[in-house]
Automatic annotation (TrEMBL):
Topology term for the membrane: Multi-pass membrane protein
PANTHER family: GUANIDINIUM EXPORTER (PTHR30561:SF0), SMR FAMILY PROTON-DEPENDENT DRUG EFFLUX TRANSPORTER SUGE (PTHR30561)
Keyword Transferase belongs to the record: no
GO molecular function terms attached to this record: transmembrane transporter activity
CC terms in the record's Gene Ontology section: plasma membrane
Record-given protein name: QacE family quaternary ammonium compound efflux SMR transporter
Keyword vocabulary terms for this entry: Cell membrane, Membrane, Transmembrane, Transmembrane helix, Transport
Length: 105
């Protein structure tokens, strides 16, 4: 269950990053509120996870999920363009996240 909570924390990191972009520098109130709620939920779940998992595992996985999620959202919603080499490194990031999880005790 703790790994699911870590996944949820990472997904909420993607949510707040996305809504922050939509807030246009915190000038759109609805998206600003959504950003703050996403941050609070992301930090809440991360805080719960770090009660059990070491910070050295939880934090990089949390940021990795948020990074990969933000990249995917950027490509889909904002039409960001990534080179094939960049996609290779995104793939390596995913492999690294999985590797950290698999090799943790």
């Amino acid at each position: 269950m703790i790994w699911i909570e870590l996944l949820i924390a990472g997904l909420f990191e993607t949510v707040w990053a996305t809504t922050m972009k939509f807030s246009q520098g915190f000038t759109k109130v609805g998206f600003t509120i959504a950003t703050v709620i996403g941050m609070l939920l992301s930090f809440y779940f991360l805080a719960r996870v770090t009660k059990i998992l070491p910070l050295s595992l939880a934090y990089p996985i949390w940021t990795g999920i948020g990074a990969v999620g933000s990249i995917v959202i950027g490509v889909i919603l904002f039409h960001d363009s990534l080179t094939p080499l960049t996609w290779l490194f995104v793939g390596l990031l995913v492999v690294s996240i999985i590797g950290i999880k698999i090799t943790s005790a």
